[in-house]
Amino acid sequence: MADPKGFLKNGREVATRRPVEERVHDWNEVYPGSVGRALLPIITEQAGRCMDCGIPFCHQGCPLGNIIPEWNDLVWRDDWQGAIERLHATNNFPEFTGRLCPAPCETACVLGINQDPVTIKNVEVSIIDRAWESGNVAPQPPEWLSGKTVAVIGSGPAGLAAAQQLTRAGHTVAVYERADKIGGLLRYGIPEFKMEKKHVDRRVEQMKREGTVFRAGVQVGDELTGDRLRERYDAVVLAMGSTVARDLPVTGRELGGIHQAMEFLPQANRVALGETVDDQIRADGKHVVIIGGGDTGADCLGTSTRQGAASITQLEIMPEPPQSRPDGQPWPTYPMTFRVSSAHEEGGERVYAVSTQEFLGDDDGNVRALRLVDVVFEGGKLTEIEGTEREIPAELVLFAMGFTGPEKAGLVEQLGVDLDERGNVARDGSYMSSLPGVFVAGDAGRGQSLIVWAIAEGRAAAAAVDKFLTGSTTLPVPIPPTARPLVV
Ligand SMILES: Cc1cc2nc3c(=O)[nH]c(=O)nc-3n(C[C@H](O)[C@H](O)[C@H](O)COP(=O)(O)OP(=O)(O)OC[C@H]3O[C@@H](n4cnc5c(N)ncnc54)[C@H](O)[C@@H]3O)c2cc1C
Ligand code: SF4
Fold this sequence. Notes:
Blueprint: H1 6-9, H2 20-23, H3 35-47, H4 57-61, H5 68-76, H6 80-88, H7 94-100, H8 104-107, H9 120-133, E1 149-153, H10 157-168, E2 172-177, H11 185-188, H12 198-210, E3 213-216, H13 226-232, E4 235-238, E5 258-260, H14 261-272, E6 287-291, H15 294-307, E7 311-316, H16 342-345, E8 349-352, E9 354-361, E10 367-378, E11 381-384, E12 390-393, E13 396-399, H17 411-415, E14 438-440, H18 443-446, H19 451-470
Parallel strand pairs: 1-2, 1-4, 2-3, 4-14, 5-13, 6-7, 6-13, 7-8
Antiparallel strand pairs: 9-10, 10-11, 10-12
This protein binds flavin-adenine dinucleotide and iron/sulfur cluster (SF4).
Flavin-adenine dinucleotide (FAD) binds near residues 101, 155, 185, 239 and 261.
């Protein structure tokens, strides 16, 4: 156990973000310097609040099964080398989760029953940031090669985790990515102010040194067809994400100035990093309306703030969630409560329980306003409240309503793999699709989800591929998703 009286002596303290008025003028992370370094003065005390419970529910809360009490104890004892070894044993990329995970481990922390939970996510990012800074993250190339080849399609967190595990197991792995740079949504979805891209670059460099081969700018399904892929490789991992965005086909949808979040965010990310984008979709001086809450909506909000929007309104069809855990979502489940992201601290207005009826245009064919109406959920269905219709100014409308699954045209159709009832690539308990030797990991199989799940699935799929190729595996297998009822 860390400090036996830690949780009695010390309250919860989290990393302090930079002042809003400073950070909205740049694209850097909202924490000063490296968040891990910023946390150093408080993190030993915070790790010491861990009670090392007999049954650590935080393990169950974390999809990766991170061995949280062990690294809390090591941090408290100032054994940072031991802590990073324990953390890397279950998580390939703690710098991603330590910055971006919604931390379902913390809502499952036993201390959270009647006190504030341990700051698990902050401890995690402190361990990995310190490890990088002190040169303790070395490449781990395999000692021997199996002679087997694997193609990983997609370079998001699922593809990267699968590729790193399989390369280290001795297989020859090529990661194909249609974008010009590696990283999936970590690269072009998530803005720099949430995670600077240097963290992705550093991992990709480590993986290259371990022997993983990266092929960016290749749309698999074009020249490299599904058949050729299967001829050339002994196994294939589909980690193509869930990229078909949900649309809103109401009157006026065709007007100029209405875009999907994933048309807007990648351009903003490129420009933030010094690239030039012709005809960039920008928020400067405009009344911006974001339709949909969630991470994507918050990222559009923070980006529009930094681009200098005149006003930003975020619309949500569901009612405002409660401030504290509702009775129906008791500890240790992950509750739906009102959350304030860094972007919400910076401005914008959130409007709940409203539905968009139509978009109204100006003489040039661009959107100028949005007509909405209040709604209630009654008897499981949505009802509009008569007399509450109103217009709000909207010169840039961004859709952040989620994604419906992987793209079917191209590779998925060429392979002819079965889909599940939600349109994702179907897989069995070993992450294998209906085609032998073709595996699925991350959002492509799970549907739109989280980075922590993508890494967990990439690791699990890698173990299944290794067993398929060699008959057995020593790669760790995270607990199957069906065994984890606590996490949304
Ligand atoms: C804007 C936004 C913000 C988010 N913020 C968070 C957050 O803060 N925290 C969190 O936990 N989750 C967040 N998420 C969700 C998270 O990013 C995803 O769950 C996660 O990235 C899924 O990982 P993946 O590897 O399955 O797929 P992705 O990251 O989507 O990567 C798939 C990759 O496959 C490539 N690809 C697809 N088809 C082909 C093909 N035919 N050939 C070659 N390449 C192909 C794509 O270009 C893409 O790069 C966010 C999502 C979005 C959209
Ligand atoms: S990956 Fe997420 S759930 Fe797991 S320990 Fe880190 S913050 Fe918690």
